[in-house]
Amino acid sequence: MSERVIAPKSRGFLFLDSHPGGCRQVVDDMWQAVPAPVAPGGEGPVALVIGSSAGYGLAATIAGLARIGIRGIGVCFEKAPARRTGTAGWYRTAATARLARQHGRDMVFLNGDAFGDAMKEEVADLLAERFGGRLDYLIYSVAAPRRTDPDTGEVYASVLKPVGSSYTTKTLVFDQDGAPEVKEVTTAPAEGDDIEQTVAVMGGTDWERWVTFLADRSLLAEGFTTAALSYIGSPLTAAIYRQGTIGAAKSHLEATARTLDERLGKTLGGRAVTSVNAAAVTQSSTAIPGIALYVGLLRGVLGDGMIAPIGQLVQLWDQLTGARSLDLDDEGRVRLDTWELDPTVQNAVAERWSTATSDSITDLADLGWFSDEVRRLYGFSVPGIDYTAAVETDVSWPAPTA
Ligand SMILES: NC(=O)c1ccc[n+]([C@@H]2O[C@H](COP(=O)([O-])OP(=O)(O)OC[C@H]3O[C@@H](n4cnc5c(N)ncnc54)[C@H](O)[C@@H]3O)[C@@H](O)[C@H]2O)c1
């Protein structure tokens, strides 16, 4: 037992501790935001979500459980409580498992490196032993800085750099007193094998390896469907995102979807797609130069008109399961970002972006919302939580229920 009061301590957008009570409430609130199940009762389809503890993968897990009644496996990479608290994803996973159990859904969570073959073996064994040896859905939502190649042991590192020439962008930071500043930062262009390294981490290689691994073990059901998360984003961030090193990885991911789609279509009557989602405040996205400013301005323009990840993932599940027809763009991608890329919205954001300064930013962007979103990633600024009360931090990883 280890009860204590947890104060938010941060360096930039990174917090050193997370709040178990707040993380649990975030998960509860996401579950509440899901509309009624499509087909209540009965045994749901078997799903594997990779990256299940945060951002879009957490939304995929919760929307899948609450809307579709999935059962299956979530995989993520989180740190247990020790001297510091556990990571927020540790606590969110405990909370998600509790809700799954309450709703009679058999969901097992595994903590470890999804890129390694040991995790693939463990998942394959679990599918065979516990889930009837048939996987219906795989959602791939990993965002990671590094990947170790299981064949060679080589470690690849992903970088966020423009391609061709350096890129100067406005960016949003908060000073020591929390006051917002709009600054310029310059990022040098990719050099050496930066592009290949980033593609090796964030492209489609590991997704394809998962599908091949499970197919070789005959664990994919007829009609097996898989989706990986992608992003296009605004012209304002294109140089650092879609035309940058990470964009090369996303193009690789999308090309992988086309190859996999053909293969799965022929072998199982199955499908592989990418799902292009909208900008959201996550631990990964706040690391991208300019994205904090962009998202804050987007919220300033759209307010509650922004669709949160949980709402987008309900739409994705509805399309994947056939509750709604699968709506693909010319390049075979599900598009859940059309509201973000709407030209009227983009023009309004671009106008605000061009005039944004440290003095005007509070009027142009919704900074209260943005700061709270960042804090909520760690379980802080969650309505209904008493942050002066001591809370148990020693939460154990959810054991599979019998
Ligand atoms: N955040 C956005 O604005 C946005 C928009 C559109 C698409 N996407 C895409 O969604 C996907 C997920 O991004 P996010 O922003 O939700 O990220 P995130 O940082 O919120 O979550 C990443 C998840 O990956 C897991 N993970 C990281 N390394 C792992 C490893 N080695 N093994 C197992 N699990 C690991 C983490 O535990 C976590 O569950 C990415 O493909 C991203 O490009 C993000």
Automatic annotation (TrEMBL):
UniProt keyword terms in alphabetical order: Fatty acid biosynthesis, Fatty acid metabolism, Lipid biosynthesis, Lipid metabolism, NAD, Oxidoreductase
Entry's EC annotation: 1.3.1.44
Record flagged with keyword Kinase: no
InterPro entries: Eno_Rdtase_FAD-bd_dom, Enoyl-CoA_Rdtase_cat_dom, FabV-like_NADH_b, Trans-2-enoyl-CoA_reductase
Pathway assigned in UniProt: Lipid metabolism
Annotated Enoyl reductase FAD binding domain residues: 328-391
Domain Trans-2-enoyl-CoA reductase catalytic, residue spans: 84-319
Organism lineage: Bacteria, Bacillati, Actinomycetota, Actinomycetes, Kitasatosporales
Domain Trans-2-enoyl-CoA reductase-like NAD(P)H binding residues, every copy: 5-82
Entry annotated with the keyword Oxidoreductase: yes
Catalytic activity: a 2,3-saturated acyl-CoA + NAD(+) = a (2E)-enoyl-CoA + NADH + H(+)
Pfam families from the UniProt entry: Eno-Rase_FAD_bd, Eno-Rase_NADH_b, Enoyl_reductase
Protein name per Swiss-Prot or TrEMBL: trans-2-enoyl-CoA reductase (NAD(+))
Organism the protein comes from: Streptomyces wedmorensis
Enzyme class: oxidoreductase
PANTHER family, per database record: ENOYL-[ACYL-CARRIER-PROTEIN] REDUCTASE [NADH] (PTHR37480:SF1)
Quaternary context: Monomer.
